[in-house]
What does this fold into?
Amino acid sequence: MDQFASTRTEYVVDNYYHAITARFPRLRYRCGWDSLLLWVPLSYLPTEIGDAFTRLAAKSGGRPPLVPAALVKSDSYMNRRGKNRSITPLGRPSPHRRRRASTLPNLTPTAVASRAPLMWDILRVSLWILAVLALFFFLRFLWELVPLSNLRQRAVFITGCDSGFGRALALRLVKDGMIAFAGCFTEKGEDELRKESQLLPGELHTLHVDITKDDSVKSAMKHVTLTLNGRPLWAIVNNAGIFTVYGPDSWLNISSYEKSIDVNLLGAIRVTHAFVPLLKKSGGRIVTMTSVSGRLPGLFTGPYTAAKYALEGYMDVVRLELYQYGVSVHILEPGAFKTALLSESALDERVESIWNNLLP
It folds into this structure.
């Protein structure tokens, strides 16, 4: 996946911003060219095709993309590719699946000519479908350019603002004069945000939030309510997430899954439950960061993928249920971006940590 990773991390922040400030935002944002053109289309194809692509990526170059060297060198890593493999090499079809030329139908010129009207009908229908799709995307492009009014009066609560996308989004909103409540896990994150936003025209309020604890999330909701003092809360952004373990499922234990699910899934549910009453009053929005890992599985990402799949499903359900209250739900599905989360050194550390836990 590393060869597909984008360096334009601000693209995710742009999508966040559009989901909050556009009058007609999308329900799903595919962030990054790999998400839009590769991973999402693969997720709609038969499972066999997606699995074949994943295996192909794993076999090319001797190691799956983004897999640290420590994992490749270990004795537990997959089966070695020996000379006497029973599996036919990629790109070479098995002999028993090859079709003989003699078995192909012998189409006469008359038979081909009789199919010409049918082929023309298919082509004509295909062109109509393409024209309708082109018109739809053009109109949607114009539709999405319409911004909301009174942006400076709109307040947004964001989780995971210590660094990365959450931090950049909070500063972007305040720069445009909006009200941002930046939930941080550390005091250092709060201090740095306050210093960086001192000269910006909007309002930035930092607060400590631990989304794995109900009391902390409820306390954050009360703080936001008191600070707004009757003003509406326009949106919440479920941005906080972790990617702490990376390795084969046989190396992991239940605690690895519990930690990922507690933050990536239950954390977003806690925040949503706490703030939905405020959003019902304002007819606001819920914006949630999921991942292409919530649509297409990848190697060695069991805890992360399981949580993101569940989060996608939860947000789809909430979107249907909150529609009657005028609350809209929007999902960001970013692909691979070159951030500290996916750096080679960070992945190596995760693998080494799991490997060390396996040692007697």
